[in-house]
Amino acid sequence: MADSFYVHAFRNAPKASLNDLGYKIRENKGAELELIGGDALRQLELALSPAFKAAVLIKGQARAVSPGRIGTALAQKALDQGAEVLRTDVSGLTRQADGTWGLATSNGAVQTKKLCDCSRGLECRFAETFGFGCSACGRAGIHR
């Protein structure tokens, strides 16, 4: 992990206000915020278009410098706690009357109490394929 911060860049400078409700909530929860103008923003992000006139920096964040190592560590922790990792194609997913999950896979039927989908960002498409809703999907961001 590396120290980092979020950059919320604005094309319309007056919209970049620390009085915005979202920033007030963050500040109330202890976030360190800074409002910067276009020149300071381009010193921070050299390739950023001059169309961006201001930014709010949310400091005290972290960025994964090796996401793969984090994934490996989390997988190992799950294995240490009794998880079983199956790498297989899933063609069906059903919730059983007893609350367990039934999966139809290329390696045969699998029954399990708990299920973790690790389909690399395809979670919503995976869930919707089998008739399940997906209330939120990951959102890419720029972290500094």
Written overview of the protein:
The chain has about 140 residues and is α+β, with helices and mostly antiparallel strands. The chain has four helices and six strands, in the order βαβαβαβββα. The chain has helices spanning about 20-30, 40-45, 65-80, 125-130; strands spanning about 1-10, 30-35, 55-65, 90-95, 100-105, 110. A hairpin with a 2-residue loop joins strand 5 (about 100-105) and strand 6 (about 110). The longest helix is centred in the middle third of the chain and has 14 residues, at about 65-80. The protein is elongated and about 60 Å long. Mean pLDDT is about 85; it is low at about 135-144.
Q: What structural class is derived from the secondary structure elements?
A: alpha+beta
**Care to count the β-strands?**
6
User: What's the helix count?
Assistant: 4
Order of helices and strands: EHEHEHEEEH
> How large, in whole angstroms, is the Cα Rg?
22 Å
- Biggest β-sheet description: 3 strands, antiparallel
What share of the residues lie within helices?
A: 25-40%
**Share of β-strand residues:** 25-35%
Arithmetic mean of pLDDT: 84
- Shape estimate: elongated
Distance between the termini: 12 Å
**Low-pLDDT regions:** 136-144
Spatial order of strands in the largest sheet? 1-3-2
